[in-house]
Amino acid sequence: MKAKKSFGQHFLHKEDIARRIASSLTLPYERVLEVGPGKGMLTKLLTAPGRDLAAVEADRDMVAYLETHFPTDAGLRIIPADFLRLDLATVFEGQPFALIGNFPYNISSQILFRMLDFRTIIPEMVGMFQREVAVRVVSGPGNKDYGVISVLLQAYYEGQYLFGVDKSCFSPPPQVQSGVIRMLRKPEQTLPCGEALFRQVVKQSFGQRRKMLRNTLKPFFNTQPDILQESFFLQRPEQLSVVDFIELTLRIEETNSH
Q1: What angle do CA 84, 86, 90 make, to 5 degrees?
Q2: Same domain, 155 and 232
Q3: CA 62, chain centre distance (Å)
Q4: Of 160, 185, 210, which residue constitutes the final position of a domain?
Q5: Are the beta carbons of 163 and 179 closer than 8 angstroms?
Q6: Residues 66-92: pLDDT tens digits?
Q7: Which residues of the chain have pLDDT under 70?
């Protein structure tokens, strides 16, 4: 189990931390996909009778290590691949699975957006991230850490910050602190507005987060610019909830349909 950084790899050596991560899944899932297993600190705690456990690992040396240290009857499938290029629908033949791991920190945001793309088959994720990223993902409105990734993920998942992990728990210690979060998918997997437009509105709003919405959202209201004089548009993006962004997107759709 490792955190990949551009300057190297950092292996978790505290089994109690790995045990807390493994036990943070809310259900005894039949299918679990671990990302970046490294030397298998978390992997060995995820194996269970009747469970289909797959571990995707891009590092050839780590793949060889896992193949050597995990017997073929351990219930583990090792997938030597780049998670970001892997068709997640094929791993368990389209069946739902839990996603877990000490995710490579340099691609953590991409991993989260990949999870969003396959949300219909990923009901839950538990993962360790760089602490700043973990906090950003679960932050709510009115918080300086609240931003694009917060809104886009929380539109489909309920997020919770579980616990922090000190850099001393890794060998060698990374330069950053870590945090573990859990994301539970909401019952409704689609939005009442156009999802591509929703993403565009969120990104446009936070593109200049210090500015009021009436300034950043002008391109969406070319046909009815007077709407931007309403008090709602005097707010800044960090003041809006996920529901507010959904309603804003619906308003834009309605405005541009006339």
Answers
A1: 145
A2: no
A3: 23
A4: 185
A5: yes
A6: 999 987 766 899 999 999 999 999 999
A7: 1-8, 73-74
